[in-house]
Amino acid sequence: MDRKIFNNYIDNKCTEEEYEVISKWIISGKDKEKIKGWLRESWQNLAVEDSMEPSVDFQAILDKVHHEINLKNLPQETKDNKINKIKGWYRKMAATLLLPLIGTLGVLLIKDFYQEQNYFKVKPDEIEIIAPIGARVVVQLSDGTEVHLNYGSSLKYPRIFTGDKRTVSLKGEGFFNVAHDPENPFIVHTSNLSIKALGTSFNVSAYPNDNFVSATLKEGKVVLEKNSKQKEDLILGKMVPGQHVRLDKATGRLTSSKGNIERYYAWKEGKMVFENATIGSIADKLGRKFNVVFDISEEIKDLTYTVTLEDDPLEVILDLMKEVTAIRYTIYPRKKAADGSFSKQKISIEKR
């Protein structure tokens, strides 16, 4: 195999003829170690810049490869649209070293690494879509249901729904446009809450590190059930359009509100809408979007903000917060570990 063709493939610049050549080579399974060696060389030669962009680690990149392999199962037009939207960000992250290898090469690399690290836990007939840090993803399920995934979220679902239920599992945040099928309810499982629908539109937020799970109903009807390992799930009640429900993970307390629900799913359009939100809750969302860690001083944790952000750079957002409140922030450089990976960018915010 010509190294030049391989490099063109890595950089996503190969011609159709070169693509055919390298595809046949990869599928043949020959020179597996050579492939890995070339990838290692490319990775080791990469210069990681100290910027505000998310840090890179090998596990995260492999997650992105996993995500791209799953995208291969989407209709071609949908797949191309999603890849085009996030291609620029991936190149900034140097993930082009691996992401173009969507086919057998991606499987080859993931198979070994995931099995060794015990990350490959998806069932053979199950697909897992992962929205990487800084990217939103849209996927269409076999029944026609459309799912939007927010930053750092993942969705597990069967290739084909069978039986009398359409069941998926969500970690993170997703907006669901459920295809109408009264005979087969659509169920979204999270760690603490399940949402059952027939044909409707709703948002679910269930990030593992958050202390709550929430559901917001745009239209249609859904039934909420609290998950239980010891007995049958507890039915909490039905939601009506325009209702937002929040379950406290620690206490099990359920709160409900109505009106102005658009802010809960404005992220689909690239917006982050905060109404009287604490600086801590804002930092949580910014941290997921930009892959940074915030250290917020105790004396400013009660500060609140009402603002709408539209895909603004992180430093612009921080400068805006500094203008309207008496705070200052410090951005620390990422630290390089012994294995060559970099820590997340740390940002401290304190009273000015």
From TrEMBL:
Domain Protein FecR C-terminal: 271-331
Key words, A-Z: Membrane, Transmembrane, Transmembrane helix
Keyword Transmembrane: yes
Pfam families: FecR (PF04773), FecR_C (PF16344)
Transmembrane segment boundaries: 89-110
GO molecular function, one term: sigma factor antagonist activity
Classification via InterPro entries: FecR, FecR_C, Ferrdict_sens_TM
Domain FecR protein: 134-222
Family matches, as PANTHER family: PERIPLASMIC SIGNAL SENSOR AND SIGMA FACTOR ACTIVATOR FECR-RELATED (PTHR30273), PROTEIN FECR (PTHR30273:SF2)
The protein's name: Anti-FecI sigma factor, FecR
